[in-house]
Amino acid sequence: MNKIHQGKTFRERAREALKDDFMRQAVRKAVDTLETRKEEATDALGNWDQWREQGKRIREHAVENLDYYLSQLAANVRNNGGTVYFAPEAKDARQIILEIIKKHGGKHIVKSKSMVTEEIHLNKALIKEGLDVVETDLAEYILQLADEPPSHIVVPSIHKSRDQIAELFSNVAREKIPNDTPSLTAFSRKVLREKFLQADIGITGCNFAIADTGAISLVTNEGNARLTNSLPKVHIAVMGMERLVPSFADLEVLLTLLPRSATGQKLTSYISITNGPKKPEDLDGPDYFYLVILDNGRSRILADTEFRQSLHCIRCGACFNVCPVYRQVGGHSYGSVYGGPIGSVISAFLTNDMERYGGLAYASTLCAACSTVCAVKIPLHDLLLKLRHRYVTHKYTPAAERTVFKLWRTTFQNPKTYRLAIKMAQKAQSPLVNNGYIIKGPPPLSAWTNSRYFPKAAEKTFREQWQQQHH
Amino acid sequence: MEQLGIPEQDFINTVARALGRSEPLKHAPQRDIVGPPDFWQEDEEIRKHSLELFKKNLEGLSGRVVIAQSAAEVQQQVKTWLTELEAKNVICWDHGDLKELLQPETLGVNVQLWNDGHSSKELIDVAARADVGITWINFGIAYTGSMAVLSGARTGRSVSLLPPTHIGICKRSQIVPTMTSVIKHLVDLRGQGHLPATINFITGPSRTSDIEMDLSIGVHGPYRTWVIVLDEQ
Ligand code: SF4
């Protein structure tokens, strides 16, 4: 667990995040830009809703028949000369990857941005073995230097300012690197190019695998995934088991949806479709290709017919950009590798830790903006509501809250106790009232009044007013 | 290596059970929906204006597109660009059509062709130091301003990737309306067992917005993606 994730609850982390003005402003600016560009790009395409519908059906079909397509994928990867491993859990994936690296005598590893390797905390494991690992996506490189996790799945370092980045780079360079964008980019190009030329192992994620071909696709704007699968002699790709499409034609649909939803681009600068190791006669490209297919809680989601559809996600980030909660608190507050609305839905299942992550169901206003933008029409707000239900039935809501609701129920079931309670409220509130609002309630009311005003109870109840006016 | 992870069958069985099946599905499932939506026919309008669209879209991404009327014009344009860039070293695909059109030995700079006359390491070193990489473009995609390049023994991936400038050259007939045409071609190649090890779609220069959402060009790949299309009348 990274230092950023150590706060105890979402509420506590969010409270900290709300004090970080730079972060909040940066996040808002970033998501506004992404969201505006997305709208332009999706309007320009026309029939956006039909594309989404098509994307949804393709994802649904792939997930509903995952057993068949996974076998087909594995067989085709082997036909192409690659090797496939199956990892039930994060620790298995780490072990597999370490063994592959050892077998090839690998020392220098370049990585291209991948959420799934974040999920299995791969870097830490590799570094512990004394390996030289470098993240090559600019944002991930910045985060690696800062020792922080990503805070957005498309633009992971939006919470860092250019001054902070210049400071991190200056530490590496042992001289002052100016804080303008061209200088910072040029510096990272120079450092990372050296790393690429030196690397013996390249590790990537996998945006989508193509089952009937045994190929994987990698999508980046910087070109670091291309370098990762062109220069090192060994390419290891790690994929969450659900991230496949049946055929090439299906890939076109997801490649139309993903960049438009993510950044408003028609296509990402680079899309590589990689079909195993290099051909024997090729002069660049990896000699060895390994695909590591990871479950790590996904079969738990698959088995749950209500939540299965969350596996349709294509990680475009659009739901982050419109979420009023994400916009206020940023990605680290979620305390999970996957933040934003989709992260709130899947984290408890992936980790099998309803107690710790189930509460993320409350990191939502249920405004449904996420469901409205989702590239593959996952009803995210609906799933968040269902998750709240699960969380409550698991009795993970705070004890105080449960007591209040219990009291509420007994009181309100009986007209006599109800009337008595209202009378008491009218009397008890007087020292707390200011301008018609309760501004400083005692616990548990303080959870509300610390950040909002609570309207005071009316002088006369509705029943009393009704009786006065009608009799 | 001894068993790492778990056997495929155990993994697939778990997935099948999660899907509520007693054993994994053995036959390809029925599908009524495959690929792009029905209305996504290759539009006659896009087809008619493919070249203009390709140019407009790539230029919109800070690329350059020049339409040449003859092989001589192609060569002249490349020379003009090399002079503008003060380029001294060029790495170039050893590709039949490209060589015929370009006559690389006449460019007046050091040109290294990508072929097995050199070791893989030497070629990568040359590409990493080259000022310009020149490739053939297997397909230009009008709708997005993309190029598709297919890897091979004489068509290395590094050529369009390592140098700061990438010049792509093709004939007008290779400009297709949308990605759909390219995908069809790839499916055919796969059918014949000739799918290359990697297919790259390149849409403009390497870019990033990772520093305060400020667009920056050329973080890993080329800063410049320039294209010449031969359109013989
Ligand atoms: S849930 Fe939908 S909107 Fe959110 S990242 Fe996944 S695909 Fe994109």
Report what the structure shows.
The complex is a heterodimer of chains A (471) and B (233). Chain A has 471 residues and is an alpha/beta fold. Chain A has a 6-stranded parallel β-sheet with strand order 1-10-7-4-2-3, sandwiched between helices. A 4-stranded mixed β-sheet of chain A has the order 8-5-6-9. The longest helix of chain A is centred in the N-terminal third of the chain and has 25 residues. The N and C termini of chain A lie far apart (66 Å). Chain B is an alpha/beta fold. In chain B, the strands form 3 sheets. A 6-stranded parallel β-sheet of chain B has the order 1-12-7-4-2-3, sandwiched between helices. A 4-stranded mixed β-sheet of chain B has the order 8-5-6-9. The longest helix of chain B is centred in the N-terminal third of the chain and has 14 residues. The mean pLDDT of chain B is 93. Chains A and B meet through α2, α3, α4, β1 and α5 of A and α1, α6, α7, β9 and β10 of B. β9 of chain A pairs antiparallel with β9 of chain B. The structure holds iron/sulfur cluster. Iron/sulfur cluster binds next to α14 of chain A.
Write a brief caption for the model:
The complex is a heterodimer of chains A (471) and B (233). With 471 residues, chain A is of the alpha/beta class. Chain A is built from 23 helices and 13 strands.
Percent helix of chain A: 40-55%
**What do the pLDDT scores of chain B average to?**
93
Question: Tally of extended strands of chain A?
Answer: 13
* Number of contiguous helices of chain A: 23
Q: What are the defining features of this structure?
A:
heterodimer; A: 471 residues; alpha/beta; 4-stranded mixed beta sheet; 23 helices; 13 strands; 52% helix; globular; B: 233 residues; 12 strands
How are the elements arranged and paired?
The complex is a heterodimer of chains A (about 475) and B (about 230).
Chain A: H1 10-17, H2 21-45, H3 48-64, H4 66-79, E1 83-87, H5 90-103, E2 108-111, H6 115-119, H7 122-128, E3 132-135, H8 138-146, H9 162-173, H10 181-198, E4 201-204, E5 208-210, E6 215-220, H11 224-228, E7 234-240, E8 244-245, H12 248-262, E9 270-274, E10 288-294, H13 298-303, H14 318-322, H15 324-329, H16 340-351, H17 354-357, H18 369-373, H19 380-393, H20 399-413, H21 415-428, E11 433-434, E12 437-438, H22 446-449, E13 454-455, H23 462-470
Parallel strand pairs in A: 1-10, 2-3, 2-4, 4-7, 5-8, 7-10
Antiparallel strand pairs in A: 5-6, 6-9, 11-12, 12-13
Chain B: H1 8-18, H2 44-48, H3 50-60, E1 64-68, H4 71-84, E2 89-93, H5 96-102, E3 110-114, H6 120-129, E4 132-136, E5 139-141, E6 146-150, E7 165-171, E8 175-176, H7 179-191, E9 198-202, E10 207-208, E11 216-217, E12 224-230
Parallel strand pairs in B: 1-12, 2-3, 2-4, 4-7, 5-8, 7-12
Antiparallel strand pairs in B: 5-6, 6-9, 10-11
The structure holds iron/sulfur cluster (SF4).
